[in-house]
Structures are given as C-alpha cells and as structure tokens.
Amino acid sequence: MGVYVNQAGYLLKGEKRAVLTSPSGRFFLEDEEGKEVYRGEVREFGFDRSSGDQVGTADFSEFETPGVYRVCAEGDAENGGVSEKSLCFPVGGNVYDKLLHDLMKAYYFLRCGCELKPEYAGEYVHAACHTGYASEWENPSVKVEVSGGWHDAGDYGRYITAGACALAHLLYAYKMFPKTMKELQLQIPESGSGVPDVLSECRVELEWFLKMQKSDGGVYHKATTARHAAFVMPEEDREPLYVLPVSSMATADLAAVCALASTIYRPYDGAFADRLAQAAEKSYQWLKENPEFLGFRNPPGCGTGEYGERDDLSNRFWAAAELYALTGEERYHRDLEKALEQSFPLTALGYGEVGGFGLLAYLLSGRKQKEELRERFLEAFVKEAAQRVRVSESCGYGVSMMEWEYFWGSNMGVMKHGMTFAIADVLGLEDRVRKAAETAELPKKWRWPGEPEEEVVPGPREQRGWNMRDHAAAQLDYLMGLNALGISYVTGNGERAYNNPHLRPAYADGIEACMPGMVSGGPSAHPADPDGKRLVPEGTPSMKSFVDDWRCYSLNEITIYWNSPAVFVTAYLKEKAGGR
Ligand code: 9MR
Ligand code: ZN
Questions:
Q1: Up-side HSE of residue 421: CA atoms within 13 Å toward CB?
Q2: Centroid of ligand 1 to alpha carbon of 408 (angstroms)
Q3: Where would I find the beta strands (DSSP E) of 141-268?
C-alpha cells in the first residue's frame, strides 16, 4: 500500500491531497512530533488506468497550519491497526521557493562554452567546454564561432528549436508572472548587475542564438559533434564541432524568440534589445524570401538529435505573431492571418508545434487585435483546457494524461497541461473552461501505424470542481511525488527524489548527489532504449514505467525544455499564491 504526496509540499491555500492505494477508510495528518492534527475520510476513486491501482484521495485542503507533516492511512483492525505513512512534506507559503530556484538554476549547470566556478556551481564545477570553431557540415572550410548557450540535455548538443521552446516557456513565465520571476536570485556570475537573474541566464542562450544566424538571416539548425559524446565531462568532449544546415523551423523560431526577447530586455539594455529586434527582422526577411518548407534530416554520418518536423506552419505563424507584437506593423498581422489558413494545432507549447506561443504573443501584445481572431484564440485555449480538465478527472491522481499518453518525455506533457491551465487562468477563461469541461470529450487514442481500433470504455470520472489553479497544482503534485511510484522527478527536491539521470556531467563528475533541479523525462509506456525495455517489464502500467537509471535515455534523461514548463507552472503557483 502506498500513500503518495507532493514531497515539495503544499501552499497554504488551495487543494491539498494525498493519493492512497487503499481506496477507503480514514486518514489522519501527523505533525513532526507524531501528534494527530487533522482527520478525514478517504474518498474512493476506483480503478486508475494509468497506474493499474485502486486508489482513493485523502483531501486535507482545509488544513492551513504551516508545518511539516505526514499523511497516515488508518490501518484496519485485521492488521492490528497499523497505519501506512507518507513521506514528510511541508505546508506553508514558501514551499516552492527552493524548487523554483533549483529548476531555474539548472540552466546555469547546463551552460556551454564557459567554466563553471565553485562560487556559483558549488562542487559541480567544470572547465570551459566546446569552445573551438565549428565547421559547416556541408562545407567544412567555412568556420564559425558558435560557443555558448546551454547543453540541450543529457547530450552536449545545442539545437535551435529546442532552445526556442525552452526560452519561450521561460520568457513567457517572466512576462506573465513578473514579480516571482524578477525576484528569483540564482547566484550566477551576473547576479547583482541590476538585471534580473532569470534574464541574465536566458541571455546566455540568446547570445548563442545570435551566433547561429547567418549573414542572410537563415539559422543553422544545430551545433553538435558528429555523434553523441561518451559519458565524459563536457571539456573532455573534444570531437570536432559542426553547424548543421539552415532549416526554416530554426529560422522562424529564432525570429520569434528574438522578437519576444527584444521587448523584455528593452528596459535593461537598449542596445541588446536592438540587436534582438534586428536579428528577428532579418530572419523574418529570410522567411519571406524562402517561402518553401526547408526541413531538417540528419545527413549521413551525423547521429545527434534531429528535431525534424514535417512542416513549418506553426513556426512561421509564431514568428509573424511575435513580430507583430514587437512592431505593431500591419504586414505581420496580415502574415499571421494568412498563416492561419493552413491547419496546425493552435494551442501547442512544444519544440515542434509552437502555435500556442503565437497565440500568447497576439493575445498579450497590447496591439490592435481583430475581435474575431482574439475570440478564436481564446476559444482554442478554452477547448484545450476543458479537455485537459476532463482527462484529469478520469485519473485517480488528478494528472491530465491518458494512460496511453506516456511517451518519451511524458513529464513535459504533464507540465505543458499545467501551463495550459495557468494560461487559461491568466486569460480569465476559468468559467468558460469549467462549463466546457462538463461536455468535453476525452482525446482519441493515438495509435501506432496499423494498430486496430478498439472500443474505449470510459473509466471512473471524479468531477472535483477544481479551479484552474488547482488543476495546475495537481500537475506539479504529480511531478513532485504524488504518483504511483512515489518518486519526485526533480533532483535534490523531495525526500525521495530520483538521482541518476541520463546526464553526462552528473555521471562523469563522480559526485553521488546529482546537481539539484533537473527534471527527468519520466515514465514511458514504450521505452525506446534497450536498458529501459529490459528494466521495465512489458505490461507495466504507464505511470510506473520508469526506472532511475542513468543508462535509460528514453525514461530518465533531462532536457532544457522539460525544466522550462516546470518553471512556468511553479512560478504561476507562487505568483498566484502571493506568499500564502
Ligand atoms: O525526445 C526525443 C524523442 O521523442 C526522439 O524519439 C529521440 C530520438 O531522436 O530524441 C529525443 O530528443 C532528444 C534529442 O534528439 C537530443 N537531445 C535529447 C533529447 C531528449 O532525449
Ligand atoms: Zn559545452
């Protein structure tokens, strides 16, 4: 039997729950001295498909006394009344401070091209890495200086579309939750300069973006070695570096992100804001001159991340929307409207599909908006959030994931749904979402090619009546341990946090504890690496298909765009709570 909680803790106001795999009976809350401080009845949910368990909820939302507690399930007389206890967790107004700090500080640990010094990195130091010139893959005599930015993930590659996604999450978090994001102190080399640390950290990636732009505005898709390095420290990876050919996705994403960043950095550094705006316009010009989709496939001999896409429709839309937000010029408005004539997912917040960023750009621009467009975008977020409410009501853990949605990097899915709830709240759509959720339908099962259709029998549904904030919080609860394995998926955060990511420096530095703040990709019902397949037996329920093993890249890697939606959701909850 398990009693699962958010190991980072619970804010004073709002939903507080534990999930129990003994679905009925009574529970109580015990303080650090073992004294009972609250008592309640377990609310039975029934069979939860993602975990394969019968589950129930211990709801202690009304308990608002700061402290450190455990949830205890009262044992029955048959086993002598022995109770099962959860891990310890705090309740209080600042429980997410360390988490948010660590999630954002993780980017410092991923910096490339510079030394990580003990003043900022503690024991997780390393020498400057990947500082040599890179050769153009197709024309190696052309050398370019592209040092800097963040390592993408467990590997040492640097990829524009992945970086754009992470930057979009972080910069929109800054834009939408300014108090929290501005106050965040990261102890990085730029701290104390008068610029918020979050912006200093993001500038590291933006400066690298600017280096990846060619003189004609086209943007190299990525900068990597030919193959992923061995599990060595970054400065020991001395294979030749390459920049890979321009893609229209990378070019559009750079235009979008630089336009977005330009406005944000303007109050702190006008010259940098100008450089960003010029870069955005230049790449946009390239897009106009190259209207055809220019995709990306790894050329023979190159085995690093591909980040290929089937089209660039959402990327071009996003670029037009951000340039409209930046300049207010009608030509960009026309372009974004034109881009909408073709179909792509409007609310996506990923590294491939980026439409949702375009919607945010438009809705938050403060520029003249067409009423019908505005309404269409709002309605798109309403529909998406309502469907995600419906999904979370069908999960005993309150997670907005169908049992078949646990793929490689599932934690990003969970956090993106958290973002959707947060966005719906900020845009004032809560009532509309609640109403739409009553009749919303579950998403249609994604099928492997050739997989036969089967009748989907809807499982239990618990209409919890949560607001957007509570739905968003439930996604973070899951990440932080309120899941069927009772694991916190953020290193160094929570009593039982995973510790062995597929992350080269974390392995090669020989230090037992992983650097804090790294978000694992999380469970996948279809492990795509040999170790994962062996270590997670076939038939394991989705939510339990995880193993904390550094070899398993499809289950336990980290990436810059898995941390960033967690930053967004945590910052939202903190800003919304205002210290309570
Ligand atoms: O998340 C990506 C997954 O869906 C792909 O199947 C996989 C294989 O190409 O790549 C994953 O992305 C990785 C990228 O290629 C390189 N950096 C780390 C990314 C996360 O594992
Ligand atoms: Zn590096």
A1: 33
A2: 8
A3: 143-144, 158-159, 222-224, 241-243
Residues 189 and 115 sit within 8 Å (Cβ to Cβ): no
Which residues are annotated as catalytic?
155, 502, 548, 557
Q: Does the C-beta of 152 come closer than 6 Å to ligand 1?
A: yes
For 445-479, write each residue's pLDDT tens digit. Answer: 888 888 888 777 778 999 999 999 999 999 999 99
Query: Above pLDDT 90, what percent of the chain?
Result: 94
How long a stretch of residues is the chain?
580
Residue found by looking up tokens 């967004």 in the block: 568
Residue 298 beta carbon below 6 angstroms from any ligand 1 atom: no
pLDDT of residue 23: 76
408 lines ligand 1 (CB under 6 A): yes
| 456 or 176, greater pLDDT | 176
Take residue 1 and report the two structure tokens written for it: 């039997």
pTM of the model: 0.98
Boundaries of every domain in the chain: 3-92
Which CATH number is correct for 3-92, 1.25.40.10, 3.40.710.10, 2.60.40.10, 2.40.10.10?
2.60.40.10
Q: What is the pLDDT of residue 80?
A: 59
The closest residue, in CA terms, to atom 13 on ligand 1 is: 305
Average of per-residue pLDDT across 267-280: 98
Distance CA 314, CA 331 (A): 18
